[in-house]
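note to self: dont lose this again. the chain is below, predicted strucutre after it. 128 aa total, dont forget to put it in the shared folder this time
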Amino acid sequence: MAKLSTDELLEAFKDLTLIELSEFVKKFEETFDVTAAAPVAVAAAGPAAAAADAPEEKDEFNVVLDAAGDKKIQVIKVVRELVSGLGLKEAKDLVESAPKAILEGVAKDAADAAKAKLEEAGAKVSLS
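---
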């Protein structure tokens, strides 16, 4: 087996979706019995601790295609509009492999717009 350089590994990771990368990290942690979590310093009780308890508002969303519905061809067309660089076969495979993330890490307004377009085409969509 050829040994990959750090740069080659980074290039390979760039091609993965967030879900695939998360699965890789879990397997890595299990295989080597390590954790990828950053160490957390114990904070003194005070204003900083109170601020940490407040829930953060989510600013990045994933648009997940739950099901294509009855109008699969229309959904495939919308998926091709939303995801740049997808050919017909790739879009069809993506739609048929539902539930699947269509867009990852997008702003709330972009996620809502994509969800509306997909639902208009007949798909069942959720935001995560």
